[in-house]
């Protein structure tokens, strides 16, 4: 793009500059920046909102806060007055997204898709403003394409360009099978942008290729190509691996407030600042000022509590966040939460490992033994050190780690 063609035709006002700054906050890439600035300036001059698209395949019924990194960006752009389109990929889910895969992804059944889609938007609405969100399903236009339309769409993109995609290239070079239907996924995601006349599409860094296909197809169909904005994949509680339920390093947005609050307080002081940038709605100036205070000697835990309260409030309420903070302080002081699960077991005298497993506090007796060895088990406040301990009939408050409690009534 030449310098003259890249120059916006409308004034770059302070509001446009602020919108650009909001767009860039925490993002991995914004392509092409000059085109997005031009779109923002035009929208400001004409009062016409831009159309901003996020597509999510309902591959699982629940969302964790890692998924909300992109939703947060949508909300920020929504608050600037633009139209956000929450696109549920009920059609593309039947193909299966090959992004980052070294094997063919099994497609979901229609029943799985419908079940997951029911909860997806409800959970996303905890971040987005439902009154200003357009909800669409890509089966609206994908089903209507039919075989003839699919072939005509496929004619607009070459195999050579498809093989530029990193995961396809690696699988081809290693003789790992690639099914022809997998080529259809980026095409269909790109066609979504044509159908919706998208100005900007958001996604994780792993979606860059698919987003660029959307740009190419819009040009093929005579539309102004969308810009693309990719957001980083959020590291989980361990600060190393990306947040994932399968890795157990996640914070679910529907889990209890006390658990959410405690998990956020468990992250490292270093990871905390990245989470502030990607998850907090505080301004960058506020975050920078808070970081300077910590560097000058303020306890980093103060900042972490602020982050935990903000996120817990978003997905629960301010009252729940405050109660979670009090609960955390009580546990840290060795106290027992006001409300803990209760269960009734039989078989007294019962070994401690079997009791922990049957009470649902550990997944296995071997894990129970390991925790006893590490002094991670308490009964009525006392640390259990004997793996052979057997408990007689009675009622006990059993604690595993810092956060898991149960009031167990054990009978004969």
From TrEMBL:
It comes from the Bacteria. Its main location: cytoplasm. SMART domains: S4 (SM00363). Its EC number is 6.1.1.1. One of its GO terms (molecular function) is RNA binding. A motif ('HIGH' region) lies at residues 58-67. It catalyses: tRNA(Tyr) + L-tyrosine + ATP = L-tyrosyl-tRNA(Tyr) + AMP + diphosphate + H(+). ATP binds at residue 245. CDD domains: S4, TyrRS_core. One of its GO terms (cellular component) is cytosol. A motif ('KMSKS' region) lies at residues 242-246. Residues 350-411 form the RNA-binding S4 domain. GO terms for biological process: tyrosyl-tRNA aminoacylation. Keywords: Aminoacyl-tRNA synthetase, ATP-binding, Cytoplasm, Ligase, Nucleotide-binding, Protein biosynthesis, RNA-binding. Signal peptide: none annotated. Pfam families: S4, tRNA-synt_1b. It is found in: Cytoplasm. Catalyzes the attachment of tyrosine to tRNA(Tyr) in a two-step reaction: tyrosine is first activated by ATP to form Tyr-AMP and then transferred to the acceptor end of tRNA(Tyr). Belongs to the class-I aminoacyl-tRNA synthetase family. TyrS type 2 subfamily. Homodimer. PANTHER family: TYROSINE--TRNA LIGASE, TYROSYL-TRNA SYNTHETASE. This is Tyrosine--tRNA ligase.
């Amino acid at each position: 793009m030449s310098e003259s063609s890249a120059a916006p035709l409308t004034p770059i006002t302070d509001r446009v500059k602020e919108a650009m700054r909001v767009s860039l906050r925490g993002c991995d890439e914004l392509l092409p920046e000059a085109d997005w600035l031009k779109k923002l300036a035009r929208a400001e001059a004409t009062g016409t909102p831009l159309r901003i698209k996020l597509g999510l395949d309902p591959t699982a019924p629940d969302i964790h806060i890692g998924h909300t990194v992109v939703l947060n960006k949508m909300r920020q752009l929504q608050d600037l007055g633009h139209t956000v389109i929450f696109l549920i990929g009920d059609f593309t889910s039947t193909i299966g997204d090959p992004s980052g895969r070294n094997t063919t992804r099994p497609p979901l059944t229609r029943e799985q898709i419908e079940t997951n889609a029911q909860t997806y938007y409800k959970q996303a609405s905890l971040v987005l403003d439902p009154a200003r969100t357009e909800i669409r399903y890509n089966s609206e236009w994908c089903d209507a394409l039919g075989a003839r339309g699919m072939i005509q769409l496929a004619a607009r993109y070459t195999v050579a360009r498809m093989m530029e995609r990193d995961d396809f290239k690696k699988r081809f070079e290693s003789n790992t099978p690639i099914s022809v239907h997998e080529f259809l996924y980026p095409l269909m995601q790109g066609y979504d942008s044509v159908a919706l006349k998208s100005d900007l599409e958001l996604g994780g860094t792993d979606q860059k290729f698919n987003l660029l296909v959307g740009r190419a197809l819009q040009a093929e169909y005579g539309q102004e190509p969308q810009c693309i904005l990719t957001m980083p994949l959020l590291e989980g509680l361990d600060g190393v691996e990306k947040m994932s339920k399968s890795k157990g390093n996640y914070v679910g947005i529907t889990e209890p407030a006390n658990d959410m609050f405690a998990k956020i307080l468990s992250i490292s002081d270093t990871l905390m600042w990245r989470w502030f940038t990607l998850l907090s709605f505080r301004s960058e100036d506020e975050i920078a000022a808070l970081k300077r205070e910590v560097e000058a000697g303020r306890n980093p835990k103060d900042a972490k509590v602020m982050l935990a309260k903000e996120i817990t409030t978003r997905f629960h309420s301010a009252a729940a966040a405050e109660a979670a903070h009090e609960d955390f302080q009580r546990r840290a002081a060795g106290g027992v939460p006001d409300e803990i699960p209760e269960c009734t077991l039989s078989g007294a005298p019962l070994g401690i490992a079997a009791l922990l497993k049957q009470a649902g506090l550990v997944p296995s007796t071997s894990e129970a033994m390991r925790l006893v060895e590490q002094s991670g088990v308490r009964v009525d406040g006392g640390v259990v050190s004997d793996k052979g301990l057997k408990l007689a009939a009675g009622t006990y408050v059993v604690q595993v780690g810092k956060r898991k409690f149960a009031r167990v009534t054990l009978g004969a």
